[in-house]
């Protein structure tokens, strides 16, 4: 019997799947006691989103309950999934994303104006604060303790896949967030608060199940958190964007000059180089062939997200940060899957992908226009940590006079950045 590969995933994190798969579209593995196929590359992505696979039961319960919540869309299939997906798409309309963008621009502008030369700023913490404030107001959520909510959301995201103290902190934060979100839903239903029509809180509180019954407070709270939480997760991308801008002065100038195409390409390259998770999982509905690997009914199919986004066949010199990749023509969507693949309306591709890109762009533009520097610090990244951050969480300083040009010096690094 093949040895279970789960310990390797915990040890190696982002590089685990690529090491096992190499340049093959699929290899047999054993994960969590189940026979499985590890797939990647465009062919693997297309196979992973085939209807013969399902999401129910694919994730370990401890991870699912802390990150997504009980009954979340991430574990639904077929009619249930399409029904819930429609709710999210109704919230995340182009007009709503534009509204969120304007709110984030205002929050970043206010944040940058408060940065002073005598106070170093931890970019990750600042991004969590700004993104939380932006998404809560946009979602119609009144929250006088937004900073506390932001820290709890960050704790969930930081520890959901890390055993020990980080997971315990994440589980406690999730429990508190569940109570908070359920309380908001309850207040809407009792007319104690009245969010703007069409906002995430309004839609979640009034959402109905496939049979037409009102969602329970618990499930409505989960739906609300699954709009708010991914927006705060953009703080990880923003942190890496801060380093990349510092290391790429020419791109920093282009973004600051108002070049929207350069800004979008920069944001895409941040997502490609630094995906949030290393892998995704699905289950086989019945025994089937997965690109040459036999998977039994209930067996797993695991998508190598990091390896697909770093495939040298489609991304030459994949460890090099180069936004030009996204300025030379259309990109095959099955080669760029930092938030999953497939069709956003009918499949399991993240409906908040436009939100993520927009939030990275807004932050990138704000940072490019700010004359910050990165003093010597520990930029090393633990690739076994999921998700992972530079150890310093990126400390910035601003000069005494705001009319100084952004520094073009390289940060003092030890170790390596995520690859």
Automatic annotation (TrEMBL):
Positions annotated to bind heme: 350
Listed cofactors: heme
Biological processes annotated in GO: sterol metabolic process
One Gene Ontology term of the molecular function aspect: iron ion binding
Classification via Pfam families: p450 (PF00067)
Residue runs in coiled coils: none
Keywords of the record: Heme, Iron, Metal-binding, Monooxygenase, Oxidoreductase
Compositional bias ranges of the Basic and acidic residues kind: 405-419
Highest taxon listed in the record's lineage: Bacteria
Spans annotated as Disordered: 396-419
Protein family (similarity comment): Belongs to the cytochrome P450 family.
Protein name, entry field: Cytochrome P450
Originating organism: Jiangella ureilytica
């Amino acid at each position: 019997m093949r040895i279970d590969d789960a310990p390797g995933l915990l040890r190696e994190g982002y590089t685990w799947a690529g090491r096992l798969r190499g340049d093959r579209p699929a290899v047999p593995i054993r994960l969590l006691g189940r026979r499985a196929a590890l797939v990647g590359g465009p062919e693997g992505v297309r196979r992973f989103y085939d209807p013969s696979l399902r999401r129910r039961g694919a994730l370990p319960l401890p991870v699912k309950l802390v990150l997504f919540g009980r009954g979340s869309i991430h574990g639904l299939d077929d009619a249930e999934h399409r029904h819930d997906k429609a709710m999210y798409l109704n919230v995340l309309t182009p007009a709503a994303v534009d509204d969120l963008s304007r709110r984030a621009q205002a929050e970043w502008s206010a944040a940058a104006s408060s940065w002073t030369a005598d106070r170093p700023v931890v970019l990750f913490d600042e991004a969590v604060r700004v993104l939380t404030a932006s998404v809560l107001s946009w979602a119609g959520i009144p929250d006088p303790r937004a900073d506390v909510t932001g820290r709890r959301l960050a704790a969930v995201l930081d520890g959901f896949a890390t055993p020990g103290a980080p997971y315990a902190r994440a589980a406690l934060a999730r429990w508190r967030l569940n109570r908070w979100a359920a309380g908001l839903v309850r207040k809407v239903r009792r007319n104690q608060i009245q969010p703007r029509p069409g906002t995430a809180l309004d839609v979640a509180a009034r959402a109905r199940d496939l049979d037409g019954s009102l969602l329970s407070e618990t499930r409505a709270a989960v739906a609300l958190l699954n709009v708010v939480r991914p927006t705060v997760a953009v703080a990880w991308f923003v942190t890496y964007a801060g380093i990349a801008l510092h290391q790429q002065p020419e791109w920093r100038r282009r973004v600051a000059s108002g070049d929207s195409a350069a800004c979008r390409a920069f944001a895409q390259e941040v997502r490609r180089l630094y995906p949030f998770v290393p892998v995704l999982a699905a289950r086989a509905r019945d025994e089937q062939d997965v690109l040459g690997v036999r998977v039994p009914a209930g067996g797993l199919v695991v998508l190598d997200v990091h390896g697909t986004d770093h495939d040298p066949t489609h991304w030459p010199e994949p460890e090099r940060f180069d936004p030009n990749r996204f300025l030379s023509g259309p990109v095959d969507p099955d080669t760029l899957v930092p938030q999953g693949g497939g069709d956003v309306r009918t499949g399991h591709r993240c409906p908040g992908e436009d939100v993520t890109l927009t939030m990275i762009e807004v932050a990138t533009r704000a940072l490019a226009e700010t004359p910050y520097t990165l003093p010597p610090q520990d930029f090393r990244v633990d690739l076994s940590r999921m998700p992972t951050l530079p150890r310093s969480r990126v400390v910035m300083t601003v000069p005494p006079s705001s009319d100084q040009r952004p520094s073009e010096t390289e940060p003092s690094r030890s170790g390596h950045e995520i690859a």
